[in-house]
Amino acid sequence: MSSASANAPSTANARLAAAGLTATTILLLTAGLSMLQPLSTDLYLSTLPGIATYFNASVASVQSTLWMFIAAFGIWQLIAGPLSDRFGRYPLVVAGAFTYCAASLLAAIAPSLEVLVVGRVLQAVGACTCLVGARGFVRDLYSPTEGARMIANAATIMSLAPLIGPLIGATLYVRFGWRSSFAVLATFSLLLAVLATLKLRETNTRRNPNALTLAPMLRTYASVARSRAFRAYTLSAAATYASLFAFLSGSSFVFISVLGQTPTMFALSFATMVVGYLVGTVICRRLLAMHGIQRTVCAGASLQAAAGVTMAALALSGIHVPIAIGAPMFFIGLSHGLIQPPVQSGAIAPFPHAAGAAAALLGFVMMLVATFVGIWIGASYNATVYPLTLTICACGLASAAIAFTLVRRDGDIDPIS
User: Fold this and answer.
1) pTM of this prediction?
2) Domains of the chain with CATH codes
3) Which of 15, 245, 270, 342 allows an S-S link to 166, with CB 3.0 to 4.6 Å?
C-alpha cells in the first residue's frame, strides 16, 4: 500500500473536521441524495401499463416519461456542474431537493400525459442538482480510492430505494392509483431538503468565479474530455448503466404484459436485480481494497457480459419465463454494483479544481447513452422478450470490451489532494 493510500483516512477525517461534518453525515446525505434518481424511476415502474391505460396512450408515449427524465437529467448536469464549482455544494443540494419536491407535486396532480412529462423533467432537474452536489462534496473530502469506498458504502444504503421502491409503488398503485407514488416522492424529498439544510456544510473551498462564463466553461469541459482516464471510466459507466436502463425501460411491459405477471409479482422480480446490486456494492469495497479500481471494473464487466449472453441465449432458445430474465439480471445488478462506484470516482479523480464539471460531463454521457437506449426499447417493443434481452446482452458485451481495453490501458489514477 502506498503512503498516500495509507494516509487517506486521516486526511479525510481532517477535512471532515475542518468542514464541521462527520463521516456519518456525509454517508447519509450521499445515500439520500443519490436515492432521488432511482426512486424517480423505480417507484412508478409497476404503474407504467396503468398510466398508459389511464391516458389512453401508447407504450412509447408512456415510456417518454422515463427517457425524458433521463435526458433532462443528463443535460442539466452540464449546468449543475459549473453551478457547483461556482457557488458551492450546499446551495445546490438544498435548492435541488426543494425543486424536486415541487416537481413531484406537479406530477401527482397532472391532468394530462403532457403535464406529467413536464413534472418528470423538473424532477430530473432537482434530482440531478442534488446528485452533482453530492459527487462534488465527496470529491472535496476524499481521495480517489476513499471516494470510491464512500460511494460504495452510500450505494449499499441507496440500494434500498430500488429494492423496496417497486414493491411500495405496486402497493400504492393497487390501493390508491398511480398518482400516489409521486405524493410519496414529494414527501421524501421534502424531508431530505430539511435534513440537508440543517446538517450539510459547504465543502468547496476552491470555488471558481469563472465557472459559469461560457468560454472558460467550454475550455473546462474540453480539458476534462481530453483526459484518457476520464474517457475510459465514463464510457465504462455509460455501458453498464445502459444495460440497467434497458431493463428499467422495458421490464414492466415484458413481465406484466408479455409474461403475465401482476404488478406485485413484477416488483418482486425487479427486486432480484436490486439484491444483486446490493451484493455487488458490498463485494466492491473488498475488491477495491485488495485489487484497486481497474481490476474491480474488469471483474464486474466480465460478469456483466457473461450474464447478458446467458439471458440472450435463454431467450433465443425459446425459454420465455420470468426467471430466465430475472436470474441473469441478478448478476447484471451485481456487476453494476461492482463497476459504478470505482468508475464514478475514477472519472472525477483527476480534476480536483473542476470536480463539478467532471461529474457533470460523466453524468451527461451516461444519461445520453441511456436516453437512446430507452427510446430504442420503446420503439422496438413488439410484445416479445427479444428486444429487451438482446439489448441487455449487447450492453454487457460493450461493457467488457471497454473495461479490457480503455480502462485497463488508461485507467491509472494517482491520488490527488
Assistant:
1) 0.73
2) 18-410 (1.20.1250.20)
3) 270
